[in-house]
Amino acid sequence: MIPLALFRHSAVLQLYKDIGANLPRYRGGDFEFLTEDPSRLIESKCQIDEDRLLDVHCSPEDANEVACCLAVADGLNGVTPYLARDERVWVRLTHIELLHYSRTRWPIPNKDEAAIAHIQKHFFARSARGIERDNAVSRLWWMATVASKVEGLKAAEALEALLFQSDVRANIIERPSTSQNTALLSALVIQLHKSLQSDQALFERKRFRSLMKRLNLNGGVKLLDVLGVDDLQEMVGEAAKA
Fold first, then answer.
1. 15 with 121, same domain?
2. Residue 170's pLDDT is what?
3. Which residues 6+ apart lie within 8 Å of 228 measured at CB?
4. Bridge-partner residues for 2, per DSSP?
């Protein structure tokens, strides 16, 4: 592990302002010049395993999402939930260590105006939504973090279920009552994993939303926060059959 120096806030703001001028760098160059000026950098408590981050790669044919999530989680040390909300961590990684991955996973549009908006979304992280869903690297860390909370499945298995369908994933991740309740999260992801291994019916938009509505109704009668994993698995299983 080696220390990861972050870009200062002023450097991130300048980089964001200069996206248009830097389009050639985003499309095929690099930003190594940013790390050569100590005035642009600030020490952090984050460390990286450069060898492990080499496993963060994809191709136009294969996003390789599960492996990339695991590699980012393993390759970063010292990233707390608080630090993970700091845009500077992810701007550093999308522009330096994981620049090639970022522009392969999220190809830069040919038209400049579209390219600027695209880079703002996937190479920076202006909001909580941007950090959790849009930034090319931070989304991998957050997904791995959520998957690590699932009890009863290996992280890779949980990620396979969570990453299979974006609408299902959003319904889980963006509901604090679900994503922050470890027992309920585990019960849901276990059911999704079972469905993934069989007919995948639970991933159908209407079917899954119906399941979530039933859980909300049950939550109005029973306090889901105090139920154990076994009880919640039974409840989710019954709701999934309806």
1. yes
2. 85
3. 183
4. 48
* Domain finish residue from 96, 119, 141: 141
**DSSP codes of every residue in 59-126:** -SS---HHHHHHHHHHHEES--TTGGG-HHHHHHHHHTTTHHHHHHHSPPPSSHHHHHHHHHHHT---
Query: Are residues 127 and 203 located together in one domain of the fold?
Result: no
HSE, side-chain direction, 13 A CA sphere, residue 212? 23
- At which of 111, 141, 171 does a domain end? 141
Q: How far apart are CA 72 and CA 142, in angstroms?
A: 10
For residues 16 and 113, give the distance between their C-alpha atoms in angstroms, rounded to a whole number: 14
Between CA 223 and CA 242 the distance in angstroms is 21
Neighbours of 178 (CB within 10 A): 19
Report pTM: 0.90
pLDDT at 184: 85
Three-state SS at 200: coil
Integer angstrom CA distances of residue 147 from 32, 73, 162, 186:
33, 11, 8, 9
Q: How far is CA 80 from the centre of its chain?
A: 14
CA distance 40 to 140: 26
Burial of 229 (0-12, 13-18, 19+ CB in 10 A): middle
Beta carbons within 8 Å of 63's beta carbon, 6+ residues apart:
105
Intervals of the chain under pLDDT 70: 217-229, 239-242
Torsions phi, psi for 182 (to 5 deg): -55, -40
